[in-house]
Structure formats: structure tokens, C-alpha cells
């Protein structure tokens, strides 16, 4: 995320090799999480939220929507938003992503 932010800050429209390397590592880690027992965990959801933020910084709406859809699916599989009442920090991140990225 930091490499992507630095690319954005310095006006580098092409993603740097460092940013792409870290993105590849993150996607690989997410894939492992999604294939295992942690598929709907807070860790997995946090990873998806981070990828959504990265898509925003890189101004790639397709990626943002893909990750928002994944986030929504994880929330549905866990039983909906009330499940996150015991984790207000994660609930706030979920709300921030949903309400700042979806058209009204």
C-alpha cells in the first residue's frame, strides 16, 4: 500500500515494480486465506479492505468493485453486519468502504 501511495504522490502513473511485487504478494496471501478455514475471518476481510483502498489510490474502479463484491460476500457468509458489533474498528472500515465507493 505504501509503494502504491508513493507512486500516486510522486505522479508515477505506471505502478512501480515494488508496488506490483507487494500487490502480488498480497493477492497470493489473500488467495491462501480464501482457500482455507480463515476464508471469512477478520484478517481476510481486512486484506480485502486494503486491496479496495489500493484500487482507489490506483484509480482502478474495476478492482475496487471486485473487492467490494468480495467484502459483501464475506459479510453475508458471516451473517451480516450485526456480527461486527463486537469489533467497532472493523465495522467502521467496512462502512467507510461501502459508503464511500458505492453509487447512491
Could you explain the architecture of this structure?
- This protein has 104 residues and is an all-alpha fold.
- The chain has one domain (2-101).
- It is built from five helices and no strands.
- The chain is globular and about 40 Å long.
- The mean pLDDT is 83.
What's the short story on this structure?
This protein is 71% helix and 0% strand. With 104 residues, it is mostly helical.
List keywords for this structure.
single chain, 104 residues, 5 helices
Q: N- to C-terminal separation?
A: 27 Å
- How do the helices and strands follow one another from N- to C-terminus? HHHHH
Looking at the structure, what is the overall shape? globular
- Domain tally: 1
Mean pLDDT: 83
Which spans have pLDDT < 50 for at least 5 consecutive residues?
none
Helix content: over 70%
The largest sheet, given as strand count, sense and whether it forms a barrel, is: none
Tally of strands: 0
> Radius of gyration in whole Å, from Cα?
14 Å
Report the portion of residues in β strands. Answer: under 5%
- Class derived from helix and strand content: mainly alpha
How many helical stretches? 5
Topology (elements, then pairings):
Elements: H1 2-9, H2 17-34, H3 42-57, H4 61-78, H5 88-101
Amino acid at each position: 500500500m505504501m509503494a502504491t501511495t508513493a507512486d500516486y504522490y510522486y505522479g508515477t502513473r505506471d505502478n512501480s515494480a515494488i508496488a506490483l511485487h507487494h500487490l502480488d504478494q498480497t493477492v497470493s496471501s489473500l488467495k491462501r486465506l480464501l482457500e482455507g478455514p480463515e476464508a471469512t475471518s477478520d484478517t481476510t476481510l481486512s486484506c480485502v479492505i486494503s486491496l479496495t483502498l489500493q484500487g482507489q489510490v490506483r484509480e482502478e474502479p474495476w478492482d475496487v468493485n471486485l473487492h467490494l463484491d468480495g467484502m459483501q460476500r464475506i459479510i453475508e457468509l458471516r451473517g451480516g453486519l450485526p456480527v461486527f458489533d463486537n469489533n467497532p474498528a472493523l465495522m467502521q472500515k467496512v462502512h467507510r468502504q461501502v459508503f464511500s465507493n458505492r453509487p447512491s
